[in-house]
Design brief:
- There is one protein chain.
- By secondary structure, the protein is α/β, with parallel strands linked by helices.
- The chain has 2 domains: about 200 residues, D-Maltodextrin-Binding Protein, domain 2, CATH 3.40.190.10; about 70 residues, Periplasmic binding protein-like II (D-Maltodextrin-Binding Protein, domain 2).
- The chain is built from 13 helices and 9 strands.
- The strands form 2 sheets. Strands 2-1-3-9-4 form a 5-stranded mixed beta sheet, with helices on both faces. A 4-stranded mixed beta sheet has the order 5-8-6-7, sandwiched between helices.
- Helix 6 links the parallel strand 6 and strand 7.
- It starts with a helix and ends with a helix.
């Protein structure tokens, strides 16, 4: 073999080795950089695609851009996630306003600083014999739990339809997950229930939002401002049609779907339901408060607007960010 060919083989091997060395150096450097950033945990209690914008923020590096190492942690329910916030195991919770109202009325210093889901995400479904709202009087509604987000959605839908569970003798049956509720509709055990997909009725609503401790925001406002900026960046990325494949890849990863294409329905639902500027709408929390106060005496004298703190999101928008 000629010296030329030996030299070329050596150069190729050396180049390959150098490229691999540089690759692993970059990877290790990025890992070390992430580890040096403040850890910021966001808990959520939903198993669906509602938190998808947070997953995108992590996958696309938007939180790291603002100096945070964000972890989005799944918990079994909204109340469990709120317990983690109360014990300072997490720095924020992604949950619905009804959960916030209930714990705030109980004395926990929680506030909503950014609204992510601005519209009811789902459909109020009924059996074929239910032709008009009045047909639900005296009937049964299937729900996941009393006081949870699904229960609140059912209550909001009935309020929109001019129905009142007490006045109209409408009963709730707790059946747990969505497949169980669907089966109840099919067998006639229940006559209606709230299910997934986008609900288009014009109902005032403050859906899943970023909830934090009021005291923590006062102590470290820059930390929470950085989290909001990262979420805004992720939201703007999410809403651009050209980023759809990357977004669906994030949804499929977290929900463990076989293919990214299987996330399309969830992606479309969130594009329709998301609140792109994260601004807070007080009228949305007032509506759900009026419904919750019927069953929670502590909420009857509670002012719902006290759970809203829009100072940071207003500051961010005022700066032109």
């Amino acid at each position: 073999m000629s010296a030329y060919r030996l030299t070329m083989r050596y150069l190729v091997s050396a180049s390959t080795y150098l490229a691999l060395a540089l690759f692993f150096t970059v990877i290790l450097s990025c890992s070390a950089y992430t580890q040096n950033l403040p850890l910021f945990r966001i808990a959520n209690g939903t198993s669906g695609e509602n938190p998808a914008v947070l997953w995108v923020g992590v996958d696309q590096g938007f939180y790291r851009k603002h100096g945070l190492n964000v972890e989005v942690i799944f918990m079994r329910s909204g109340p469990l996630a709120m317990s983690a916030l109360a014990s300072s195991d997490v720095q924020a919770v992604f949950t619905s306003s009804n959960n916030v109202l209930n714990v705030a009325a109980g004395g926990l210093d929680v506030v909503v600083i950014g609204n992510v889901v601005g519209r009811l995400e789902g459909d109020f479904m009924a059996r074929p014999e239910i032709k008009q709202p009045e047909d639900l009087k005296g009937k049964q509604l299937a729900i996941q739990s009393i006081g949870g987000g699904g229960w609140a959605n059912n209550m909001l839908a009935m309020d929109y339809l001019g129905l009142d569970p007490d006045r109209d003798n409408i009963h709730f049956i707790v059946l747990g997950d969505q497949p169980s509720r669907i089966q109840a509709l099919e067998t006639g055990r229940a006559q209606a229930s709230w299910m997934g997909s986008t609900f288009s009725a014009p109902i005032a609503y403050l859906g899943a939002s970023l909830v934090v401790r009021r005291s923590a925001v006062r102590q470290e406002p820059r930390l929470y401002e950085s989290m909001l900026k990262g979420t805004l960046d992720a939201m703007r990325f999410f809403m651009k049609p050209e980023n759809k494949p990357a977004v669906m890849k994030s949804i499929a990863r977290v929900l463990r779907l076989p293919r990214p294409e299987d996330a399309e329905n969830g992606y479309n639902a969130m594009v329709a339901a998301y609140n792109i500027d994260l601004r807070l709408k007080p009228e949305g929390v007032k509506k759900i408060h009026s419904i919750l106060a019927r069953t929670n005496p502590k909420l009857q004298a509670f002012k719902p607007e006290t759970i809203i703190d829009d100072s940071l999101i207003q500051k961010i928008h005022a700066s032109g960010y």
